[in-house]
Amino acid sequence: MNTRMLCAFHVIFLSVYEIQSKSHPKPSCGYPPSQWCRSLEIAIECGVQKQCMELNATRPDPVVPPVEISLYYESLCPGCRAFLTEHLFPTWILLKDIMNVNLVPFGNAKEIPEENSFSCQHGEPECYANMVEACVLYSASHAAFPVIYCMESSADVLKSAKPCLQLYAPFVKWGSIESCTRGELGRSLMHQNGVKTQALKPAHTHVPWITFNGEYTSEWEDKAMSTLFNLVCSLYKGIKPPVCTGALKKLDRSFC
Fold first, then answer.
1. Model-wide pTM > 0.70
2. 3-class SS at 55?
3. 20 to 30 Å CA-CA from 153: which of 23, 81, 159, 230?
4. Domains and CATH numbers, the chain
């Protein structure tokens, strides 16, 4: 991970310290870094008004489609968790204007239609965690990825689910997620994820399995595992945002 990515990951980690560790202070302004440039008022409160103005000065061309990244993964797979938390989420924080992320929790799971259930590589806890994340993706909309990052970066994915939801998607009640996992909706969401996973061409042989704009190549996968940030910048067909060209190094230093 390069210096810019390490800086971004450090900032992101601070925003979830209550769930994972008490050794890091909260951002002094009370907002997570992903929200610092959301409004002028927040930027002023967090002391990054100038940096946010620089960031907003050059926005990607709305006509050029963003890079579509789809991650086919399992909630308790160590390699999947490492990629999602150390590469995908930090890159998305920096490049969300030029990339979309689609999360498909299923991986090597198997659907058992006659039992109306699923079997998972890491056992029943993973099947349940997969379904929780599928329900979060369905219910939390734009806030779903931060919730799932929070879960996957915690010591216990399942125990952190409720506090992560309360922190990043307080408009979604935990009871609705539980109802989803117990009912037909949760099973339907998992079935859909299974269909998407089984329809991959070439067929997935491992997880995490990553596609870019619907396509998979081993070369892209290798780059994604080491330099995802650079790969997304190179695949974007429009004018590169300042963060890709290094024009906002000053912003990075300020956030660190």
1. yes
2. helix
3. 230
4. 3-255 (3.40.30.10)
